[in-house]
Amino acid sequence: MQNKRTLQKLLVAVLIVSRCLPTSAATAEKHTNNNQLLTFNLLQADNKNLLGDYEATISGDTIKILVPYLVDFKLKPTFTTSAKAKVFVDDALQTSGKSLIDFSEPVQYKVVAKNAVHTYTVMVFNSGLPVVCINTNGSKPITSKREWMDSTQVTIYRANGQIDFHTTQPDAQVKGRGNSTWSVKVKRPYALKLKKKSALLGMPKGKRWCLLANFYDPSLMRNELANYLGQNYTNLDWTPHGQHVELVLNGVHCGNYYLCEQAKTTKERVPGDYLIEADRKAGRGDIIGAKTGNFFNIKDISLKGKKESDPDVIADVKKILDRFETTLYGPDFLNPETGYKTLIDVESFVDWLLIKELSKDYDGNMFTSCFCHIMANGIIRMGPIWDFDLAFGGNPFGNEGGLGGLAMGFGGGNDMAFYNQPEGYHIAKADWFDRMMLDPEFTGLLLKKIDAMIADSATIMAHIDSVAAQLALSVSADTVNYYTNPGFDLSDPTAMSFTMEDLEDMGVGGFPMPEFDSAGGFGAFPFPMPGMDSAGGFGGFPFPMPGMDSAGGFGTFPFPMPGMDSAGGFGGFPFPMPGFDSAGGFGAFPFPMPGMDSAGGFGAFPFPMPGMDSAGGFGAFPFPMPGMDSTMFGGFDANFGFGGAQTPHRTYSEEVAWIKEFVSKRLAWLKSDLEKRRKR
To answer: What is the share, in percent, of the chain residues with pLDDT greater than 90?
Structure first.
């Protein structure tokens, strides 16, 4: 009897203990239709650290969510289950939208129903990159490249969520930056100015920083790759350091950006008295080259009490540049005692050309963003390197036939596909370097450096792969780029935003109509043409065009246009147009418009323009321009006007593979050609 009572007490105790155990511990691992997680989400309403809602991918027993900018991993997930299952984490019952979990490490969720448990592993990722959070005063939008916005708060998190840098509002300023990239509203670049020199994400201290959008670069790595090569395979005085980051601006995730140092004449960055940019694209400059006619602008100065715009500063820089160009393009430029090499640091020019020509940088032919610096003794040193989003075979217009150098003066006059080909010189044919390439000593040093890169090509390729792996998650979330949001889709008036400030900074109206001002110029050719006043301008093109008088002007456009005589004028526009012969209609207007004859011409200008055939016509001008072949505006179809890619772009892995292939083939071609030159 005693043993029976003891056994009864023991059974009761076991029953009590078993009832006290959580359900998850009392069941066996078994997957059924009754113990499934059907949905798993992270909602902004439940999580203040989120900027939107995120839905998980459920694959088998694994649940994954990517939140690129996430730095605080304590979250309240929302989930649904099958039947009346219960959910546990570490034996604690979970309530959808209520239970707070730390997802900094994978978390096991146990779904229990009818004595069976299904275990899921939940992983919440960020992109693995640091996060830059910028908040302007009152969350005001950044609308200017000239005016700094005061009272800006900047916080930078490392990838693990730890704070790397934080500034209170009075200690930082922000503004826009860039040329054409600034005009692409969907993803704009920015500049930061800190009150104190600071080392951001382990980079050397500085006050001035840039956030590059890499809008045209689907790999997001071309600027970083150029800087890596500059730092490891040249002896340039300074090459920017940078880090890929996720940018959050005023509570909006803007995607992947490249946070890097800005070129400034400081002891930590560019040495010397003056930082100079060659900028033919601007169509104007502080100095015009004595022999090249290029435009040079003083971008920064280290001399105390002096400004870039001071007349004596401009005169000093002009004297140095004029002497150099006159010597370089003189008959005795190779003289070892009086030639061009006495006025410059030769190796810096070789190094700068090495990176620019290897990458076949679109703008690198002394067109824009081409920098040199002048030392206190007047010696010119080339560098720093800058701006490679269209380099390394990554010109996005390459599949679209060829604007070449038409109208807006892009980069140099070649068909666009040229810039994506590993063969052929681009930079070496430009100002200054066209002469230096005639110097055996210069080409010999260039060949030596190329040989060194070829010998170390495995390291370069490994670096590209490493950066690609680092960016993989960020790329998957960075959906705003040229290939998904064509920056120059002019058929969409909201795609780009040009202000007069932008147009002035871009030097718009560059070739073939540079420097047209409000007194009589074209402003932002080809469309729109703002800034034309009644003294002789176009007003709001294509109509009206005020200010044209009856003595010789356009009157009230589009018609009538009084004052045009039959000997060579417009007569009674839009037709007839006497004075235009059958050999070419308008001839080279604006330049050229092939296929225009006296029988068809432009029809009823400005649109439509009947009589234009598919071999060379404009179709329904101004946008789109179907049927244009590669001799002119090739490849622009009705869907994309001037800009979007016509054909599907490469996948990310294909893009990375192409960069590696381009670098490898480019090095081989440069080596081969330089060796041939030295044998001549």
So the answer is: 63
**By C-alpha distance, which of 339, 279, 418 is closest to 287?**
279
**Domain boundaries in the chain?**
21-125, 127-483+649-680
The residues, ordered by sequence, that sit 6+ positions from 650 with a Cβ below 8 Å of its Cβ are 218, 658
Contact yes or no for 303/313 (Cβ under 8 A):
yes
Provide the 8-state DSSP code for 652.
Answer: H
Contact in structure between 398 and 417 (CB atoms under 8 Å): yes
Banded model confidence at residue 6, pLDDT cuts 50, 70, 90: low
pLDDT score, position 500? 56
Strand 190-198 relative to strand 172-176, pairing: antiparallel
Place of tokens 């860039």: 178
Spatial distance between the Cα atoms of 279 and 431, rounded to a whole number of angstroms: 11
DSSP string, 297-341: EEEEE-STT--TT-HHHHHHHHHHHHHHHHHHTSTTTT-TTTSGG
Q: Which amino acid is at 662?
A: F
Tokens 């004449």 appear where? 265
Q: What CATH architecture applies to the domain 21-125?
A: Sandwich (2.60)
Give the model's pLDDT for residue 563: 37
State the number of CA atoms in the 13 A half-sphere of 6 facing the CB: 3
Q: What is the mean pLDDT of residues 321-337?
A: 98
Give yes or no for residue 69 having a pLDDT over 90.
Answer: yes
CA dihedral for 150, 152, 158, 163, sign (positive or negative): positive
**Per-residue pLDDT reduced to its tens digit, 434-478:** 999 999 999 999 999 999 999 999 999 999 999 999 999 999 999
Please determine, for residue 315, whether its predicted confidence score (pLDDT) is greater than 90.
yes
Give the alpha-carbon dihedral of 302, 308, 312, 314, to 10 degrees: 110
DSSP character string of 380-426: EEE------TT-TT--GGGGS---TTSSS--TTSS-GGGGG-SSS-S
